[in-house]
Amino acid sequence: MNYQVNEKGYYGVFGGAYIPEMLYPNVEELRTTYLNIMNEPSFKEEFNQLLKDYVGRPSPLFYAERLSKKYNTKVYLKREDLNHTGAHKVNNTIGQILVAKKLGKNRIIAETGAGQHGVATATVCALMGIQCIVYMGEIDIKRQAPNVARMKMLGAEVRPAKSGSKTLKDATNEAIRDWINNPVDTHYIIGSAIGPHPYPDMVTRFQSIISEEIKWQLKEKEGRENPDYVVACIGGGSNAAGTYYHFLEEPSVGIIAVEAAGKGVHSGESAATSQLGKEGIIHGCKTLLMQTPDGQITEPYSISAGLDYPGVGPLHSHLYKTGRGEFYSVTDDDAMAAGLELSKLEGIIPAIETSHALAIFKEKKFKPDDVVVISLSGRGDKDLDTYIEYFKL
């Protein structure tokens, strides 16, 4: 079974580029050049230098001793929360801003849910002196106020999406409209492993630094490159794609994806795409998508602004359909409890997105000698208001 994208942009039956004719030149330009650009020695050198000196990579692989003791297994946390900007998102925005520069683009647009991708995009635009416009759902603007302030401080314009559920899906719609209207000078930095080909593959490749580092870090700590399991939370799925990438063809490594069940998978307020989705097209690709019987997109819900997306990236749909990945759905309540538990056991306050991955121990029992690596995709500063309100702190 092959888990890499094929030449037509598909992972099995998922992927492709389902785009309006107006976007064809933009997407085609990217498709025909992205691999050549990424493989240029000068590009690699600049990308790696920025990851080291600006982002602060490699991010540590931390043995969570007290968490391991509690769940009687070996738990390692891949500390993406320690990256500059506080999450994994910056790995991809650094890569894409360099691609945009090579293509001669002088205006950047992005969409964001939790605000981390927006901050990461605004950050690299400030670094490179390029205009930045970030689309964000009106509801997300309210619940992620600190990240909105950060984007503005970094010089970005934050434009609210006021239609639909006023969250990530709608922000993405607005960004795509902008791109159609500004095809020549604008590059759209998509933050997830979703969108028309080549985006899912390009984003995954930039994020694959996560699994690349896990391999050599685990070799140092455990004397072997491969863990027994890699675990990540999953919305669109960029942190998950990067965490899984170098283990996709290693059948001994279990791949675990944790989705947001919201108030319960069948409550009507959920974002558990693997459980509720069926094949459909969203934002330029064919993937698993929450939809009504007549094909209308269902409004997703999660307490975490980064996971309330009605679809999932095509790679993850393929992993689900082929059985290569184990998919779990975790409720708001279980995720919040897991976030508080990590804070108290290890002194690390995780993003609520990440807290979903940490709730895996409620869903699955591991063996004492299993090595379980969890992607700690972001830090919880941005979510403090939600934590305070939820726990009445």
UniProtKB/TrEMBL annotation:
Catalysis performed (reactions): (1S,2R)-1-C-(indol-3-yl)glycerol 3-phosphate + L-serine = D-glyceraldehyde 3-phosphate + L-tryptophan + H2O
The Tryptophan synthase beta chain-like PALP domain, residue ranges: 56-378
Pathway: Amino-acid biosynthesis; L-tryptophan biosynthesis; L-tryptophan from chorismate: step 5/5
Residues the record lists as N6-(pyridoxal phosphate)lysine modifications: K89
InterPro entries given in the database record: Trp_synth_b_CS, Trp_synth_beta, Trp_synth_beta/beta-like, TrpB-like_PALP, TrpB-like_PALP_sf
CDD domains, per the entry: Trp-synth_B
Any one of the GO CC terms: cytoplasm
Cofactor(s) needed by this chain: pyridoxal 5'-phosphate
Enzyme Commission number(s) from the entry: 4.2.1.20
Family: Belongs to the TrpB family.
Protein name per UniProt: Tryptophan synthase beta chain
Native organism: Aquimarina muelleri
